[in-house]
User: Fold this.
Amino acid sequence: MPLVAHTDLPTFQRLREEGEEILKPERARHQDIREMHIGLLNMMPDAALEATERQFFRLVGACNQITQFHVHPFTVDGLPRSLEAKAHIERYYESFETIKRDGLDALIISGANVTQPKLEQEDFWQPLTEVFLWAKQNVPSILCSCLATHAVIQFCYGIERTRLPAKRWGVFPHKVLDRKHPLVSEINTRFDVPHSRFNEIFREDIEQKGLKVLVASKGAGVHLAVSPDGFRIVFFQGHPEYDDISLLKEYKREVTRYYNGDIEDYPPFPEHYFSPKVQRIFTDYRDHVIASRRGNKPIEPFPEAAVLDYIDNTWRDTARAVFNNWLGKIYQITDQDRRIPFMPGIDPNNPLGL
Assistant:
C-alpha cells in the first residue's frame, strides 16, 4: 500500500530519500486500485512535529502494498506554536473543516505535551473533543496514541490517569492477551514496545468500563486496548511509532535539562534500551556532565555518534503488523465514499462481528 504524495509536504521527499515507496498523483490515478484516506491529527510540539509525521506515515506506508494511502495531516487550536511551525502547518496541513467536508476512512490522533494539572484544563481539550465527537460518528475507527489515549478514555469513560512515582520510559517486553482479536492476528505473542510517560491508566480501571485489553506488560502496563465494540477506538499507551533513536534523543534532552539546571537529578537510562557498551559510554559522559555543572564549565558534545551502531529497533515489525491489521479491517468495512463510515450491512456497534 504505497503512500501517495498528493501535496508537496516535505515529509514525502524525506521518506522517499529513505527508500519508502511514494507515488506521484499522476501514477496513482492510473492504477485501478481503491484508495484509503487516513487523517493524522498531529498535536505534538514543534520539535517533534515533522518527526511524528514521518513516524506515522512510515507505519501506514508499510502496510498492504495494494491499497494506496492518502494521509491528511491536520491539527487543532490551543497548542503553542512557533512562527516556523505555524508556517509549516499553514502550507502543508489541512483544516478540520476540510477534513469534515471530504471525510476519512480512519483517524490517528497523536500525543501532545501538557502544561496543566488536569487534561480538561488544557487549551487543546475542547478542540480535541470536537474532532473526536465528529470522528466517532463519521470515521470507522480512531487510533489514539499516548496522551490522546488518556484524553479520550477520560472523555468517554471518566477514567483519569494516575501520576507515576517516576517517569516510565524505555523498551519493555509485552504479551498478547487475546490472540483471537483481529488486531493482533498473526503477530508475535511476545514483543517489545517503547514507552515514555509520567502517567498511566491501569488495566483494572480500563476493564471495569468494558474496554478490552489486547496487549500488556508486567513492567509497563497496558499498551494496546480497544473500545467495548472491539474496534471503533484503538488505544496505544506506548509508542510503537518511535524510531530507533527516539528514546536516545529524549535522553539527550534530559541530560541537557540537567546541565542547564532545569532538573535536579541526573536522568536514569531508559530501561532495556542501552546495551552494556552504550551504558559504559554514557556513564563516563554522566560523570563529565556532573563535574562540569558543579564547576560551571562547558560540556563536551553528547556522544551520540559513538552509540548509534549499538541502538537496536526491536518493535517496528510488530508495529507494522498491527497497523496492517487495523487498516486491513477498515478496508473491509468502510464505504467507498469516505464521507460514509460503513458499507451497507455493517453494524457500527459491532463492526467486526466479534
